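tokens incoming
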């Protein structure tokens, strides 16, 4: 049985909801706060929260460089909202001292959809996810201003890119972990499982 072990970066944000969604998508889910915990997972979710805070905490906990190395080496990674910002090669309007992991050739704009009180839900057609539209929850969400040739756009809302994939990296502006629909997490679990497949033969 090829059951992947997937971590959730547990420095800030909706960690518990991601752990529940990953377990529902047939993965072994674990919180990750230290480099040694990162070393024990096959893939990683970067949750929503505040991207500047997550960046600074990752440095403080000694995780930033190990995270960059794992992403560079092809570890599957999925970022939601602030996690999308963490995976961007470039932020249009970074805060002072804000760093990213990189991994997706895209430029993102922080808080592009407005403030907390302008949060909303929208039905999205997401490439690679069959069936009904995915209900996207947008909370102080970024959008993608542009992508490079290596990145594939999976979904848009009102003309703005809100889901992207590049190789083993997946990112969404929205929060599927808050809806009870685990299809996006299942897509990511399948990515992790496919990445592990040669080792399990």
């Amino acid at each position: 049985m090829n059951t992947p072990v997937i971590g959730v970066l547990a420095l800030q944000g909706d960690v518990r909801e991601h752990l529940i969604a990953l377990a529902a998508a047939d993965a072994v889910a674990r919180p990750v706060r230290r480099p040694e915990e990162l070393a024990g997972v096959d893939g990683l979710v970067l949750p929503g929260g505040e991207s500047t805070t997550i960046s600074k905490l990752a440095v403080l906990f000694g995780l930033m460089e190990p995270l960059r190395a794992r992403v560079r080496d092809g570890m599957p990674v999925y970022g939601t909202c602030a996690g999308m910002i963490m995976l961007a090669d470039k932020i249009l309007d970074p805060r002072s001292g804000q760093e990213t992991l990189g991994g997706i050739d895209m430029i993102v704009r922080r808080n592009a959809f407005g403030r907390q009180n302008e949060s909303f839900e929208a039905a999205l057609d997401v490439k690679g996810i069959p069936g009904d539209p995915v209900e996207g929850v947008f909370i102080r969400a970024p959008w993608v201003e542009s992508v490079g040739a290596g990145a594939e756009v999976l979904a848009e809302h009102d003309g703005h890119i809100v889901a992207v994939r590049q190789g083993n990296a997946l990112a969404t502006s929205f929060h599927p972990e808050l809806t009870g629909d685990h299809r996006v997490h299942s897509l990511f679990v399948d990515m992790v499982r496919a990445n592990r497949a040669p080792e399990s033969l």
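note: The radius of gyration is 15 Å.
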